[in-house]
Write a structure and sequence with these properties.
Blueprint: H1 11-16, H2 22-27, E1 34-42, E2 53-57, E3 65-70, E4 75-80, E5 95-98, H3 99-104, E6 112-117
Parallel strand pairs: 1-5, 2-4
Antiparallel strand pairs: 1-6, 2-5, 3-4, 3-6
């Protein structure tokens, strides 16, 4: 991995790449299930430079690698950290994604529609 300081901004990777987990998702074969719903974000330092995108979602096992597709057609790959029911503030939305994940999907709204393939 190249860690030199030629990278101009933390968001350059997040804005362009499908993310660190793409190969793991693709190696699993067919992904027959998908669910759509409203997502909001949570703040985290991860994902901006390493492409490790994360989502909180109910009914998908933590640790599962998923493909996220926004209404604008942009997709990235993310890991499910844990279920939303563990959060006090999780009841108003279907998912929460890290702020780097939202940036990679070019989503700037406080909440947005997301389709999750797993």
């Amino acid at each position: 991995e190249n860690n030199n300081s030629n990278i101009t901004s933390n968001t350059s990777f997040a804005q362009n790449g499908p993310g660190y987990f793409e190969d793991q998702f693709n190696s699993k074969g067919k992904h027959k299930k998908h669910v759509s719903g409203t997502s909001k974000t949570f703040k985290t330092a991860s994902g901006w430079s390493d492409g490790k995108y994360y989502i909180l979602a109910d009914d998908i096992n933590p640790g599962t690698i998923v493909k996220l597709t926004a209404e604008n057609g942009k997709s990235v790959y993310a890991k499910v950290l844990w279920n939303m029911s563990d959060l006090k503030e999780g009841n108003d939305v279907n998912f929460r994604v890290s702020n780097a994940t939202a940036a990679a999907l070019n989503e700037n709204n406080p909440s947005f529609i997301l389709t999750v393939y797993y």
